Amino acid sequence: MKLGVKLNSSGFIIQGFSEIPELQVPIFGIFLLLYILIICGNLTIVVVVWKTPHLHTPMYHFLINLSFIDIASSSNILPKLLAILCSQLSTISFVGCITQMYIFISLSCTEIILLAAMAYDRYVAICHPLHYVILMPLRQCARLSFISWFLGFLDPIGHAVLISNMSFCLTNHIDHFFCDVNPLLQITCTDTFNISIINYVEGILLGITAFLLTLISYICIISTILKIKSTKRQRKAFSTCTAHLTCVTIFYWTLMCLYMRPTSSFSPKQDKYFSLLYIVLVPMLNPIIYSLKNEDVKKVLVRFKEKCILY
User: Fold this and answer.
1) How far is CA 208 from its chain centroid?
2) Which of 11, 48, 100, 146 is most buried, by CB atoms within 10 Å?
3) Fold that domain 2-310 belongs to in CATH
4) Among 166, 172, 141, which residue's Cα sits nearest to residue 66?
5) Per-residue pLDDT, 175
6) Separation between Cα atoms, residue 308 and residue 230, nearest integer Å
7) Is residue 195 scored above 70 in pLDDT?
8) Is the pLDDT of residue 4 over 70?
9) What are phi and psi of 21, to 5 degrees?
10) Domain residue extents for the chain
11) Is the Cα dihedral 266, 1, 106, 44 positive or negative?
């Protein structure tokens, strides 16, 4: 037990991609480029919405929140990974590791709830268009956004408290490129029964509930669209939610690849690559999808581009 306390106090060593040392420099360059694209892409969405008065609507209010989540999520992990790849100093303090894990889970939970709120917004807009202004004023959007952030950061407190009180006496090497729950549980010598129970309970209460709300919203949306007789109106109605539906599909696909696999299929190497899909692919694709699949955003971006060329 003393050894466990010693490792806790001395921190951890993040192994990252040390199994391929000859590729450390190219990997650093790739991740730096991806991080810049994530920040620039999401900041562009924020600026475009902020600078365009007619985009100050509930859907774009949620979109700004989604962009902030993507920026915060990538900034929580990628700068530390870049520092490890650049300097080969792969140590992280115990407090820093638990904090990184807590922020990662919190932002993931916040995004799950926010995507469900965005699905509800699209449901009201398409299924109850005449009551949309009454049911979804900006004050209601702000309330739903606050609930998403509040519950998202409240949910993983149990994880952080339990894991911070564990002893890591097996090793202080984390075979991953950031501090996540599964890699930490693999190196603890403390019983993990309680944390497993919390994982299942919170997974059901938060993840499955939000997923079902999103699914039910889109079942109602598709059902309503199919009842529209005009093909042109059908296409227009569906175009208002294709960007969000695409983002939801990619988000849940990467999440299932990462956490909803049979226990027998877990391996550190696979977990790293599945984590990359979630941490890099989702924040990078979200602004691209909303730019390409949203006519309002595309028109504003074209106007911004024309102004830049004129100047």
Assistant:
1) 16
2) 48
3) Rhopdopsin 7-helix transmembrane proteins (1.20.1070)
4) 141
5) 87
6) 39
7) yes
8) no
9) -60, -30
10) 2-310
11) negative
